[in-house]
Amino acid sequence: MKIDIIGDIHGCSEELHALFLKLGYDLVGDIPVHPDGRVPIFIGDLTDRGPDSIGVIRLVYRMVIEKKAARYVPGNHCNKLYRYFQGNPVKEQHGLETTVAEFKQLTSKDQKQIQHMFIKLYETSPLYLEISEVDAIIAHAGIREDMIGNKSKKVQTFVLYGDITGEFHEDGRPVRRDWAKSYTGNRWIVYGHTPVCEPRKVNKTMNIDTGCVFGNALTCFQLPEEKTISVPSNQPFVEEKFHSFL
Fold it and tell me: Calcineurin-like phosphoesterase domain: which residues (predicted)?
């Protein structure tokens, strides 16, 4: 089994299509398919902040649910959109407002379709993926070794939001511990969530959120090749959104 793990898209559909092209996928009907049978895996945060969250939902739903040609795990932004579509009270901020604005431009029929698509995508996907064929775990914000195999509320919070301390930076971002430095496992942990300017390998972990929506790049990590491939972002660069681990 050969997989292409794709970092946080955040509504950047043009960059996603460019990445598939660079990875050697062909358009079969209306979805990208690799001639060698590689399996794309979306690492969460499909929507929010970018220009085409609805288009990304449509494509990922078609690939994952209808064609069974890809896999997906949710991110924190996915969780928030899921709760919004369920009618729960959520604050339309931190990017959700852009997806909601797109959604409200749709016809009533299309709104119902997108709502159904996303709820089904979210509810039928695992919190994280264990792929034994390539000795990897794919989790949106990562996962500690002792949590693997567990789906408790504590693990869900870690996988969606990272190793948060409960404190916040001055700009409102949550303070997160650098859990990857303590990872000693033999399996790859591939994750995103925290924007970095370059794919970040620490021990046997790989952060592939290279901040496409903040103007840097959209990145894929290929296994078993252990290779990263990126395409440049079309969005304006926002330097302060990138995390430094100095």
Answer: 1-196
Distance CA 30, CA 141 (A): 30
Residue-by-residue pLDDT tens, the chain, 246 positions: 999 999 999 999 999 999 999 999 999 999 999 999 999 999 999 999 999 999 999 999 999 999 999 999 999 999 999 999 999 999 999 999 999 999 999 999 999 999 999 999 999 999 999 999 999 999 999 999 999 999 999 999 999 999 877 777 676 667 778 999 999 999 999 999 999 999 999 999 999 999 999 999 999 999 999 999 999 999 999 999 998 775
E strand spans, the chain: 3-6, 26-28, 31-33, 39-42, 71-72, 129-131, 136-138, 164-168, 174-176, 188-191, 200-202, 205-207, 217-223, 227-232
Q: ω before 195 within 30° of 0 (cis)?
A: no
Q: Which amino acid is at 53?
A: S
3-state helix vs strand vs coil in the chain, percent to 5 = 35, 20, 45
Structure tokens at 102: 């797109």
* 155 CB-near residues (< 8 Å, 6+ apart): 127, 143, 147
Cβ–Cβ under 8 Å, residues 186 and 135: yes
